[in-house]
TrEMBL record, chains A, B:
PROSITE patterns: ACT (PS51671)
Lineage: superkingdom: Bacteria
GO biological process, one term: methionine biosynthetic process
Species per Swiss-Prot/TrEMBL record: Pararhodobacter oceanensis
Binding locations of L-homoserine: E192
Enzyme active site: K207
Name listed for the protein in its UniProt record: Homoserine dehydrogenase
Enzyme Commission number: 1.1.1.3
Keyword NADP: yes
Listed GO MF terms: homoserine dehydrogenase activity; NADP binding
Record's keyword terms, sorted: Amino-acid biosynthesis, Methionine biosynthesis, NADP, Oxidoreductase, Threonine biosynthesis
Length: 428, 428
């Protein structure tokens, strides 16, 4: 065995404790598989005395996590604090500058500062790794950077926020309205302190922006991810979609188009016959399409102590084995600025709206769609025991621009009650 | 860029041509992602003049593929000849002995000689890689060796022969009998020259034995894989299974048990709600279960020019990037001999048989099962417009030993017509 690899762990929440457990319980296995002992030198967390169910008394303690970044007895800093700025960022920068490798589960940090941090890591000849930041235990970063490296990636898609998928599948399976299931998820502790990170699609958007950078060799550009949350999805939408053979998923899609890099995270209709449509509960799924390999689907737990710690430790073991690659699969300086695609690729759309029950209302809607260049595939006034008439329209392929235009015109046309719902029907 | 990585390719069939195409078409991308030029120095195949649709005139030609293994201008030998002995083995041995890295898609070779070849590679400080040997384009070797390396693997399962899955799903979807679909598959060119390699489960068994070695740190032991082909699966079995909510799949399962290493490749009933049960046509799927990560599912094309070449080139790119690991994820000398589990773990079983239509026949069968310690969960005499009475039995959990014992007793009991069908119902 060569010299041991020594970790400094910042953050002893669920994932941090999971990492400590793997190091403590599987020490022989880790050594056999990497040829090195993997040990923990020091840790830092909010409370030193809290009972976490594991013995951390053998590790040095730092009140200030940033101090882990300059300790002589630390080779790899494991950053599990989270947050796009503040202590997490300071720690990662300090560690890289001091020649430590960094393993992190922090998608927000990398989505906002990934380009600069990747450059910093490469300037210092060290690894900055983040398998745990995307889709929990699924080895998706490794699959994209290494396993499918010979492919020109044509599209990356995924359901990457377990909480949203829990909410949507629970609505579908139990027939419950959004608000009720949202409260249920809150009580179960599934939601972030700021729930909008989950249901607003932000967390999943962070993840998508990292996959985009690897897939297309572009700079991380989270700001250009078009975000739409799930909070406007009603139980009616879910039922109507199911009647047509679709499930509604918070789906991330990234693809390079003639108009630039398209990145969007939004509720979409996906065929219930596709693995994406069948995904239940908190499970994550990433679909990668390459010019040679075709479609690869990866599925697994998107969060939780074990799965996330598994991903963190895979990164640590790669470092122990001497595997070192640029953060996004190619040198940071070669990542290009891709113009964001303002208009997304065409797709059929699902439109649901409520019309005033008066003569000519439907004709007005149809005319607006026609004027916007959107042609109707199916139209159904689907029940009628109310003062108003709910209408479901499925369009032929239309651009997001044309749909947006039509939605704007609906606002002022005098026959639409409330906000129409518009969801892409994704081809998978 | 550092020095180029130079390939010698043996075998210019579908996969070989796919590899040549990637090297020719994606040269810039490969260089950007690996930091090195990847070039082809020499090739060898059965015919030099055959039109393969790619220009190979710039590459040196070897009539004898083994000669590629000692060429000074070759850093990596890509072995795409196939076969467990003969030229393929001679080439791989020659190449490793001459300090070349080897990338191969040859599951038969590794299933039979993997232990010795892994040792030879390590003795020479070179890589022996085989991502393309298992599940085509799916990065399953990388996921097991690296992505899930922090896990004690508890079970590996998979549908890893596309031809068998094509036959079974075609039978299910079209309601056609085995023989008819088998002929269809033969005409479509889906079958190996010796079809028993496919339908006898041998090819898939080869693959399973490689996954076992990585997962459990054991020597490759193909001889101990319990094989059962799909040729006895009837359309009746498929329909009866579907009525109960199952699909029949040629499923490989490897797990370490208290009684030794269990490796089996056999048609099983799997729930149609699980991704394995939903797998259609030639697609492959591997399910990996680890103590931390839980269940990871990987799905993709199991064969074909693009997917297999994608996997070959991923290995080549890893070598170009300087990533070097032992063949089975840990040094060959640390792989242990695991006793094969003679009796597999208990499971419910599906039994279908035809009984003579006479009093007491059913009682006799029930008595035999009881005597063998097998208890019945469901029993159904499922139609009766024949001279004999077909019977479907679903058992409670029973060991393969007890089921085998019961099947032997059925033979001599005087009421069973023909051979009963016994299929495990796999818990997934």
């Amino acid at each position: 065995m060569s010299t041991p690899l020594r970790l400094g762990i910042a953050g002893l929440g669920t994932v941090g404790i999971g990492v400590v457990k793997i190091v403590q319980m599987h020490s022989e296995m880790l050594g056999r598989r990497t040829g090195r002992d993997i040990s923990i030198s020091a840790v830092s967390a909010s409370s030193r005395t809290k009972d976490r169910g594991v013995d951390i008394s053998g590790y040095a303690w730092e009140d200030n996590p940033v101090a882990l970044g300059s300790r002589e007895d630390v080779d790899v800093v494991v950053e599990l604090i989270g947050g796009e700025n503040g202590v997490a960022k300071a720690l990662v920068e300090t560690a890289l500058a001091h020649g430590k490798h960094v393993v992190t589960a922090n998608k927000a940090l990398l989505a906002h500062h990934g380009n600069a941090l990747a450059q910093l890591a490469e300037d210092n000849g060290r690894s900055l790794r983040y398998e745990a930041a995307v889709a929990g235990g699924i080895p998706v970063i490794k699959s994209l950077v290494e396993g499918l490296a010979a492919n020109q990636i044509t599209r990356v898609m995924g359901v990457m926020n377990g909480t949203c998928n829990y909410i949507l599948t629970r609505m579908e399976n139990a027939g419950l309205p959004y608000d009720e299931v949202f409260e249920e998820a809150r009580k179960l502790g599934f939601l972030e302190a700021d729930p909008n990170l989950d249901v607003g699609g932000i967390d999943a958007g962070h993840k998508l922006s990292l996959l985009s950078a690897i897939a297309f060799g572009t700079k991380v550009d989270f700001e250009s991810v078009v975000l739409q949350g799930i909070n406007a999805v009603s139980i009616d939408d879910i039922k109507l979609a199911r009647d047509m053979g679709y499930s509604i998923k918070l789906l991330g899609v990234a693809q390079m188009t003639g108009r630039g890099l398209e990145q969007r995270m939004s509720p979409c209709l996906v065929p219930e016959t596709h693995p994406l449509g069948q995904l239940q509960g908190g499970t994550n799924m990433v679909v990668i399409e390459g010019d040679s390999v075709g479609q690869i689907v990866l599925r697994g737990a998107g969060a939780g102590e074990g799965p996330t710690a598994s991903a963190v430790m895979a990164d640590v073991m790669d470092i122990a084995r001497g595997l070192q690659l640029p953060t996004f699969g190619q040198p940071a300086e070669t990542l290009v600025d891709a113009p964001p695609a303002v208009v997304s690729t065409g797709a059929p759309w699902y439109l649901r709206m409520v019309l005033l029950d008066k003569p000519g209302a439907l004709a007005k809607i149809a005319t607006i769609l026609g004027d916007c260049g959107v042609s109707i595939d199916r139209l159904r006034q689907y029940h009628h025991d109310e003062p108003h008439a709910p209408v479901l329209i499925v369009t032929h392929k239309a651009s997001s621009d044309d749909i947006t235009h039509a939605l704007e015109m609906f606002e002022d046309c005098g026959v639409v009650v409330g906000d129409p719902m518009a969801l892409r029907i994704e081809t998978v």
